[in-house]
Amino acid sequence: MATTDVDTLSGMFFTLDSPDGSYGTGQVIRKAADGVYFVRFDGNEVTLPMELVTIGDMIETTEDEYKLWRFFDTAEERAKWMEWLDAPSKPRVLSLVRTPPTLPSD
């Protein structure tokens, strides 16, 4: 009986985090061989050539178990993630000093 290999990565969009805090974006184009895919990173001005990436590279994590690759079904989902990621955080300031209550004046 022949086994079929289900390809769930081809066509997916991704972000790839860099150690400096920036990230790259692109798309998984197609399967090249077992465990290896052609990916194309997004270029600013020109279409970049495809690169070969292994599944091992795609599941790689940092020492803190932080995933470097994030996958999205559509470019719109990825854009929403990037918008959230790039949005400035709004710090919440809490006062740790208790102010004394004011006494009513007579």
Which term fits the overall shape? elongated
Major pleated sheet: 5 strands, antiparallel
Q: H/E series, N to C?
A: EEEEHEH
Indicate the proportion of strand residues: 25-35%
- Average predicted confidence as pLDDT: 86
Helical/strand content category = alpha+beta
Helical residue percent?
10-25%
Number of helices: 2
Distance between the termini: 95 Å
Say how many strands there are: 5
Strand order of the largest sheet: 4-3-2-1-5
As a whole number of angstroms, the C-alpha radius of gyration is: 23 Å
Name the assembly state: single chain
Low-confidence spans: pLDDT under 50, at least 5 residues? none
Provide key terms for this protein.
28% strand; 106 residues; alpha+beta; five-stranded antiparallel β-sheet; 5 strands
Please render the helix and strand layout as text.
Layout: E1 13-17, E2 23-33, E3 36-41, E4 51-54, H1 55-58, E5 69-72, H2 75-86
Antiparallel strand pairs: 1-2, 1-5, 2-3, 3-4
